[in-house]
Amino acid sequence: MPNWLRDFLQDLQYAVRLVRKSPVFVATAVLTLALGIGANTTIFSVVNGVLLNPLAYPHSAQLVAVYGKTPGFDQGPVVYLNFLDWQHDTQSFSSMALYRNQNYNVTGTGEAERLSGYMISAGFFSTLGVRPVLGRSFLPADDVLGAEPVAILGGGLWGRKFGASPDVLGKSLIMNGTSYTIVGVIPASFTFYGNERDIYTPIGQWNDPSFLDRRISVSAHAIGRMKTGITLPQAKADMDVVARHLAAAFPVADKDTGITLVSMKDDIVGKVRPFLLVLLAAVAFLLLIACANVANLLLARSMGRSREFAVRAALGAGHARVMRQLLTESFLLAALSGTAGLLLAFSGARAVSRTLPGTLPRVEEISLDGRVLLFTLAISLLVAMVFGLAPAVRGARVNVIDVLKESGRGSTGGRHRLQGIFVAVEVAMALVLLIGAGLMLRSLSALWRVNPGFNPSHAITFSLSMPSSQATTSAETRARLRQFDNAMASIPGVQAVSVTLGSRPMIHDSSLPFWIVGQPKPANDNEMPQAMFYLVEAGFQQAMGMTLQRGRFVTAQDNEYAPLVIDIDDVFARTSFPHENPIGKHVHLEQFNVEAEIVGVVGHIKQWGLGADQKSAVESQFYYPFMQLPENLMRLAAGAVAVVLRTEGDPAAVMGPVRRAVTQLDRRDVIYGVQTMDDVLAGSFAARRVSMILLAVFAALALVLSCVGIYGVISYVVGQRTHEIGIRMALGAQRGDVLRLVLGEGVRMALVGVACGIAAALGLTRLMAEELFGVTAQDPLTFAVVAILLTLVALLACYLPARRAMRVDPVVALRYE
To answer: Which pairing describes strands 63-70 and 73-76: parallel, antiparallel, or unpaired?
Structure first.
């Protein structure tokens, strides 16, 4: 056996014996490090699954999201006719595909069921590199107007509704009144932007005049696969050329438009990248605090073993041999801590997967895979070096004569200084985490105080789908909606009801170009200002709890026979009619091709979220009477509308009577997407809330570990200075003097840490500036409160050992060795 291996086995055997002899010490050190390693492994598993792993498609680096670019919108929806030209003219893409959200009512198979789905172009699945598990994908011949209606099932629906039977091919489904033939099944594991869908139909079969209008976008989006060897900048340059050609060919519709390309992976995870990096930095700080804590424990323990090291040195053991022994003990502790941390990370990863699906993309891909396990191994080895090196160096450099003659009391000053440095580092990093958590708390507090522009209390919203077909007339649709309104108004507890389409606060957004009648008409749609539009009924203002500032709101008399009217919000009034009364002015709504009179001004609704509305490209809003919707668009409303209800009591309690009333109207009607407006409002800052909770947890752990570190060091110092304290008291020192002496040492360490922490936080909190609202990253109040709080907590941690020092008996202390 080689000498180095024999020495290592001896060191390991000796380390195991020491572990058995000191179970309390080992348990404390392992638990401290396991918390740090477990937290780091958990967050790294999230970063690995969300940011580092490639998307679950073949050669996913070639996939990009393709957006339409218009003034004010760098990443807007895609116009279908433009998409067809992109496909034909691009030189950089091997394929491109279009998709659009579309839900379907399935009838004829028992109770009506609402299915989620996509309208997709023929190349959608081949662009992603996904093959059907049964049947085929759509062919180009399927993706044209007038082709036989066909559908592809999602794997989940195939198993749930058809028992995963291969006989499903060729069967028919009645969806939205049309019979579709099933031609394929997609794997159940397939997700797109984190979503699973039940059904897919060809988008080219959509018979909607707006779809074939180059001036109108219908919420469609595109993806593309770059050719092998093509980079994203090259593809961008190519698509810029395509956009310029289209602008020249179609100056009315495509002037000043462009094309934006974003890596599909960045498109999915880009918004959460800063949030995850902040969390990764936070847990790294937590681990360093844990390492400093354990290093202090080992320094104190090595002090008690000074005589052992001196004896070994006297018997011929060199410094390197003693250091190797101490490092072996550190690596053993790190191995135990890494194992325990990995077990904690298993639970942590599961907890993250359960609690963050609505906040975090790709959450289903979070797991402890090989890369995460290697990370845990590497971090455990690093931890062993970090917390073990300083005690090992100190332990190996003993003064043999002093230790054997005087028990080493005279050589402790350097160790005290090193322990003080470790404590200061702990305090500094704990301060940074506490300041981060404090800033997030103040941001959430500021968000809660923001007026959303509506009253969410006792309000609930849902979607309603009614059976329709190509033969459904506008008059039939209006009659159905009026019947629905009457049925809802007759339900006890319902105070107001409105059917709505277009935008819904913090749920869905739709905008239209407009121009002010009497002013010069812009040359094209892209030069016109945009405004968010809401199709509403008379009860919308009361149902949403909006504020009417002047004029009147839409009434039931604003029907299909009355002159066209709209309400605008105060932002619309301020930007389009500065220093004027907008009541009585007329606005031309370009894509509706109508002219409407302004009859009222309402308060602005925070459409984009409480903390994001001022950053949006479109803030102006207007409200259009639902019953005055143009005839060519009213038929489309039958398929799916939204509803807002205001109730006297718990809004969720009325949904039972609502469903029964809808069933009585037509058993084929389907209600889905039920949400209280309180939940909608809370969901608008869910990501910030999660950030605050996680930072607060890490900061609390850091605070506890720092206090334990301060307490441990001061307790150790008191024990080592018992003889000195006895002499001071024998010479006349009072207990108050001893208290000030001990507290002074602790406060000095804490204040050094606080000063260093403030300096570090001034730089590091800039990383979370995008997550903050209503408070700056260098908010002086947060910095001051956290610094004072941490100093007071540090004083409390010093007080207990200081009290023990005050009670020292001088006679006993003078005999203390």
So the answer is: antiparallel
Q: Which residues contact 687 (CB under 8 A, 6 or more apart)?
A: 272, 275, 359
Q: Per-residue confidence at 411, pLDDT binned at 50, 70, 90? A: very low
CA distance 656 to 425: 58
As given in the structure block, the two tokens for residue 85 are 């030209």
pLDDT value for 748: 86
Q: What angle do CA 564, 568, 571 make, to 5 degrees?
A: 155
How far does CA 664 lie from the centroid of its chain? 41
Instruction: Determine the Cα–Cα distance for residues 527 and 547; give it in Å rounded to an integer.
Output: 31
Prediction pTM value: 0.78
pLDDT over 70 (residue 721): no
Q: Quick count: other Cβ atoms within 10 Å of Cβ 393?
A: 16
Provide the strand spans (E) within 163-268.
172-175, 178-185, 199-202, 221-226, 258-263
**149 secondary structure, DSSP code:** P
The radius of gyration of the chain's CA atoms, rounded to the nearest angstrom, is 34
Is 60 exceeded by the pLDDT of residue 308? no
If you search the block for the tokens 């020092």, which residue do you land on? 805
Beta-strand relationship, 641-647 and 221-226? unpaired
Q: Which residues pair with 756 in a beta bridge?
A: none
Query: Lowest-confidence range among 75-79, 338-342, 667-671, 719-723?
Result: 719-723
* Residue 755 to residue 761: CA distance in whole angstroms: 10
Which residue, 25, 32, 43, 34, is CA-closest to 340? Answer: 34
Per-residue 3-state assignment (H helix, E strand, C coil) for 568-595: EEHHHHHHHCCCCCCCCCEEEECCCCEE
In a 3-state reduction of DSSP, which class is residue 184?
strand
Burial of 544 (0-12, 13-18, 19+ CB in 10 A): buried
Q: State pLDDT tens for residues 610-624.
A: 876 555 568 899 999
User: What are the φ and ψ backbone dihedral angles of 727, each rounded to 5 degrees?
Assistant: -60, -45
SS3 of 679, please? helix
Does residue 5 carry a pLDDT above 80?
no
Contact 795, 745 (CB under 8 A): no
- Residue 435: closest CA among 712, 705, 757, 689: 757
